[in-house]
Design brief:
With 106 residues, the chain is of the alpha+beta class. The chain has two helices and four strands. A four-stranded antiparallel sheet has the order 3-2-1-4.
Length: 106
């Protein structure tokens, strides 16, 4: 693959479930789509496109930042504090390296 500029992801706010806290990430540039398209082209030429998702394209980069192993001692207070971060700007992350890994099994 050719060299691409770093991906930039803006993290704005969080989403909370009973088990996890996610940062809501949004791409600042189109680099991720360029990488995805090149990967699709290369997989097609190698006849490895059978499992490509073609229904839709992801436009977000949400990231799990916290996973509750047990229920918090005071769930109401915990979720109240997390709610305060719901719309905070959490900054930009610059991704300079991507590694592709082979997934086996289901």
């Amino acid at each position: 693959m050719k060299k691409y500029p770093p991906l930039e992801i803006r993290f704005r706010g969080i989403a909370v479930s009973a088990e996890t806290v996610l940062t809501q990430g949004y791409f600042e540039t189109n680099t991720i789509n360029e990488i995805r398209e090149e990967l699709r082209r290369e997989l097609l030429t190698e006849d490895l496109d059978a499992e490509l998702q073609t229904r839709y394209k992801n436009t977000t980069a949400h990231t799990v930042i916290l996973r509750f192993m047990t229920q918090p001692k005071d769930p109401s207070l915990t979720f109240q504090k997390l709610e305060e971060l719901r719309t905070n700007d959490l900054g930009v992350s610059k991704i300079e390296w991507l590694y592709l890994v082979e997934m086996t099994g289901s």
